[in-house]
From TrEMBL:
Pfam families: dCMP_cyt_deam_1. The lineage of its organism: Bacteria, Pseudomonadati, Planctomycetota, Planctomycetia, Isosphaerales. Keywords: Hydrolase. Residues 1-81 form the CMP/dCMP-type deaminase domain. This is Guanine deaminase. One of its GO terms (molecular function) is tRNA-specific adenosine-34 deaminase activity. Its EC number is 3.5.4.3. GO terms for biological process: tRNA wobble adenosine to inosine editing.
């Protein structure tokens, strides 16, 4: 996959969030050339104030990889800083 493919996946996830009434934001974490975690925004409909897609994707990557050290990973998101 390439940057364009990763961003297309983020846009798909953003559409999912928007369709359920959340802010249309999607995020993925890529490690070693593969998507290891992804999330859609869960605000305002979610149960957590930390329901930002980027936060959720990073937490899922940490859980999957078993480490808080995500060196070498790349975060892609539809949100601008």
């Amino acid at each position: 996959m390439d940057h364009n493919s990763y961003m297309r996946r983020c846009l798909d996830l953003a559409r999912v969030a928007g369709d359920r009434g959340d802010t249309p934001i999607g995020a993925i974490v890529v490690f070693d050339g593969r998507i290891v975690a992804e999330a859609s925004e869960e605000l305002p409909t979610g149960q957590s104030v930390t329901g930002h897609a980027e936060v959720l994707a990073v937490q899922r990557a940490v859980d999957l990889l078993g480490s808080t050290d995500l060196s070498g990973s790349m975060l892609y998101t539809t949100a601008e800083p």
